[in-house]
What we know:
With 186 residues, the chain is an alpha/beta fold. The protein has helices spanning 18-22, 29-40, 56-68, 89-96, 102-113, 141-151, 155-161; strands at residues 9-16, 45-52, 74-78, 99-100, 126-129, 132-137. It has a six-stranded mixed sheet with strand order 2-1-3-6-5-4, with helices on both faces. The termini are close together.
Amino acid sequence: MNMVDPTPARIGIVTVSDRASRGAYADAGGPAIQAWLESALTSAWEPVRRVIPDDREGIAESLAALCDDAGCCLVVTTGGTGPAPRDVTPEATEAVCTKMLPGFGEQMRAVSLRHVPTAILSRQTAGIRGATLIVNLPGKPSAIAECLDAVFPAIPYCVDLIGGPYLESDPDRVRSFRPAHARRPG
């Protein structure tokens, strides 16, 4: 008998953009994250989407609500990671996390530098709040895919380690890594 929990994992997808939140242009980042996750995840999941302005307090409140109230095991943000004055997503992320995981940002910048020299200006990061992993991605859809390809192999095991649901991915799309001793559902 398979004891896998049939409840879909909840994954927050947050677009941080003044203009997209006002409707001045269509959000491209959030849909790019959702499409990538739909192509990669084989376990049941549901998106919890937000489009919010570049406001540190508002970003922090949205992240905390997705973790604490909406029960997301993973929250992926897009936008607000550059050096401009309104780019405050990493600061808001750090404000709500109890542990930071700088390796995520290091890996994303390393991969992005293969494509664009301005990747050194990017300030992506990741951290943990309770049983939720928060990952900040850049705003450009092609960079979103490059960064998720680079860091997603570690995400399911990280979610395991912090007490989240068992996320499974399509190995033909992205091969997630779990040590041989890692827990298996059922």
